[in-house]
Amino acid sequence: MNEELLAVFVASTIRLATPLLLAAIGELLSEKAGVLNMSVEGMMLTGAFAAAAGASLSGSPVMGLVCGLVAVIPLSLLQAFLTNTLRANQIVTGLGINIFVLGATTLGYRELFGARSREVIPGFDKWNPPILGDIPVIGQTIFEQVWLVYLVIPVAIAVWYLLARTGLGVAIKAAGAAPRTVAHSGLSVTLIRYGVIMATGLLAALGGIFLSIGDIHTFTEGMTRGAGYLAIAAVIFGNWKLGQTIVACLVFGAATALQFQLPALGIDAPNALLIMMPYLLAFIAVSGLVGRQSAPRTLAQPYWK
Amino acid sequence: MSAALAVSGRILAAPAAIPVLAVLAAFAVGLLLIVATGASLGQAISAFSQGAFGSAYAISVSLNRATVYALVGIGFVIAARAGLTNVGGEGQIAMGGIMATAVAVHGGVAGLPLGLAVILPVLAASLAGGLWGGLAGVLKVRAGTNEVISTLLLSFIAIWIVYWCVQSTDLLRQPMTSAATLPESATVPASTMVPLLTGSYAAPVTVGVVIALILAVVAAVLLARSVFGFRLRFVGLNPIAAARAGIPVERMTVLALFIAGALGGLAGAIMLLGEQHSLKTGFSSGYGFDGLVVGLLARGRISGVIAGALLFGFLRSGGITMEMAAGVPTALVQIVQGLIVISIAGAAYWMDRRASR
């Protein structure tokens, strides 16, 4: 692999990891508070579709971004209401919402775009940051990215700060580890879990928005193709720790990038193995082969007073 | 006062009322959406019923779908009795399908007498599904891994193992596929195919329907009347007390997930050897996840599994015809299906609250 190919590989790794990073950081927040939010896939798809629809109708990607974020709010509220107020099974509501969103966005797309389905949707342009962008070879390939890619950095720092340095972070983690104690200390477990699901929704939607109007400037039916489930796998592989979850997303992004690069390098590796890799790695991680797992104690359990 | 309470209690206690209402509400939304998309309501409904139960063929296809949902759902309910959530139906079906293909095509069983040509691949497939499910059980017992997470991951791994098997000629890909066709395995020999109940392709309902019904009865009796069922329930209600009482909790955990997986593997074998006859990428296309939903919605009752399996089986078949004949996208059926799942899952709040009183 020469320098240029390597730079392309790194660039596409980062690009492919971006939607996963946004969604997985959100999913991590949810799971820390005890909610296994399976609807992250549907949340991403909602963001992707609403952003595409908004950008296409208004001609402005910024309006698309706003639409994507607004559209996910009722969906997140529904998920939060079902799992926290009605204490419905988190897995079944997640799967139900995902089925619903896949249907709704497919139908909506056909109704809205129908004949114009091959049209390019206005989206965000790539941006070349000063200084970094001027570095030879890698400046043009690695650092020239849509600004949403760079958004991952402040989001990650904010979530790290929230979880590690604030009282709210302690409360979130406690809501997943010992919800009863949280309730005894006078805080509302329900409210905390509503909050993290809303945050997850917005972050997952950002991931979806990046997919449709950031990366490829179009919408295709079911375009997330399981990215939400990958985000869940990343949190598991990352052992419910922020840094490791980010590394997991980058590893998954690299595995995806390799699928496209290996044939170019003339290497004949089974494609299936690369696609399977994220799930296999996450599985190896949870099977206890690589140290102890630290899943939040009440993960996926509804909280009853 | 107490009399009034008793009366209102009796009305609310109709156990099927809430899920039935939820399903009806979801259907109503579906009808509204059909109108909203501008399709003719009458045409859509007649296409739907044509596709779901308009002909012997349509009914057969719907029943075959329902069979798969029922088997996965029964497995889910058995595991749930032990307090386990088996999210791995999709993977267990996939492993069953792979094993059934491998044994039927390369296992040298085609010439065996007495139906062994079918029975052996079906048993091997059940074993493969069982091991895939049991693996999650072993992990739970040995490493404390949450079975929701491990079975979900195992599902995705299995889906891509199918892909691998049909892509690679070293595995199950038939060498004859040209570049123009999608890669798939060789067709299974005729002697290994799960026979049709009617013997005619005009009504291709497989013997699997009967097998699923028998297994449903067996499971219902086992769960309600046997020592095994009692032990499962004890482990599910309180594993610590169960262990004190001398029940081998760990073995029961692995066994429950093994049985659930074996039923998934069986479903995969019936699908592959009964209908599809060759392994393709995505051959299980969401059956496992739908079956899981059927199991969840059944709320622990085998009768609920049967009802849910039939509902989803007919819904799916009708939806496909609705798209072809009336131009109403199947996405609409997905919306209705999603709404059914969401509303029944949410309605559990009222049902559980009543049960706990």
TrEMBL record, chain A:
Organism encoding this protein: Minwuia thermotolerans
Topology term for the membrane: Multi-pass membrane protein
InterPro entries: ABC_transp_permease
Primary location: membrane
GO cellular component, one term: plasma membrane
This protein's UniProt keywords: Cell membrane, Membrane, Transmembrane, Transmembrane helix
Name listed for the protein in its UniProt record: ABC transporter permease
GO molecular function terms attached to this record: transmembrane transporter activity
From TrEMBL, chain B:
Gene Ontology, cellular component aspect: plasma membrane
Any one Gene Ontology molecular-function term assigned to this protein's record: transmembrane transporter activity
Localization per Swiss-Prot or TrEMBL: Cell membrane
Membrane-protein topology: Multi-pass membrane protein
Coiled-coil residue windows: none
Keywords, ordered alphabetically: Cell membrane, Membrane, Transmembrane, Transmembrane helix
Keyword Cell membrane in record: yes
Residues annotated as transmembrane: 12-36, 56-80, 92-112, 118-139, 148-166, 201-224, 254-273, 293-315, 327-351
Record-linked InterPro entries: ABC_transp_permease
PANTHER family in the record: ABC TRANSPORTER, PERMEASE PROTEIN, GUANOSINE ABC TRANSPORTER PERMEASE PROTEIN NUPP
Protein name per UniProt: ABC transporter permease
Lineage per the UniProt record: Bacteria, Pseudomonadati, Pseudomonadota, Alphaproteobacteria, Minwuiales
